[in-house]
Write a structure and sequence with these properties.
By secondary structure, this protein is an alpha/beta fold. The protein has helices at about 10-15, 25-40, 55-65, 105-110, 110-115, 160-170, and strands at about 20, 45-50, 80-85, 90-95, 120-125, 140-145, 150-155. The protein has one domain: 3-Layer(aba) Sandwich (Rossmann fold), CATH 3.40.50.300. It contains six helices and seven strands, in the order αβαβαββααβββα. It has a seven-stranded mixed β-sheet. Helix 2 (about 25-40) crosses helix 3 (about 55-65) and helix 2 crosses helix 6. The structure holds adenosine-5'-diphosphate and magnesium ion (MG). Adenosine-5'-diphosphate binds near residues 21, 23, 26 and 51.
Length: about 170
């Protein structure tokens, strides 16, 4: 018996939550659209960035911060855990929990207040603080598919997250 052909509707739904960046210029273009969408909501969002080392999490954040007007060096927070930016429009926190051995370190580092504050929170390695992070507006999974190509798959989102995604990927 032949298997059912894939449903075009299901395919469309799945692919509508995945984007392909063929080069870093595509990543930058996506970040620029995201910056615009975030301005419209005063930056109030929590974006969880998943993916292996080198997938492009920090690179996406760098392009986003540039598009939001950060002019200085954008350091990866791998060692400091958090880098914060006081932009004229809203506050931004870029966090990286890669070095956490235990999710409890989230509490020990006193990060709870950040997530209770208005503004943008960008989190690399969110799974390492599992149980401590509030629900994210985006659960975004980045994967390397070649030297300069990456996929970004939205695998969970809030209502606000859906709105931001449409703004980034819509026509
Ligand atoms: N399309 C792309 N999007 C993002 N990064 C890319 C892309 N193509 C190549 N790269 C490179 O891949 C690397 C990604 O590293 P980084 O952003 O630090 O990853 P992560 O934070 O996920 O560990 C960078 O050297 C970046 O220049
Ligand atoms: Mg990184």
């Amino acid at each position: 018996m032949n298997p059912e052909p894939p449903s075009p509707v299901a395919d469309a739904l799945t692919t509508s939550h995945t984007v392909l960046w063929r080069s870093e210029a595509d990543t930058q273009a996506f970040a620029t659209r995201l910056a615009e969408a975030l301005r419209a909501v005063d930056g109030d969002a929590l974006i969880a960035l998943h993916g292996d080392l080198g997938a492009g999490k920090t690179t996406l954040v760098r392009h986003l911060l540039r598009a939001l007007g950060v002019s200085g060096r954008v350091k990866s927070p791998t060692y400091a855990v958090v880098e914060s930016y006081a932009l004229p429009a809203f506050a931004v926190w870029h966090l990286d929990f890669y070095r956490f051995d235990d999710p409890q370190e989230f509490e020990d580092a006193g990060l709870r207040d950040i997530f209770a504050s208005p503004g943008l929170k960008l989190v690399e390695w969110p799974d390492k603080a599992e149980g401590y992070l509030p629900a994210a507006d985006w659960q975004l999974y980045l994967s390397s598919t070649g030297d300069t190509s990456r996929t970004a798959a939205l695998q969970g989102h809030s209502a606000r997250g859906a709105q931001l995604w449409s703004a980034c990927t819509g026509p």
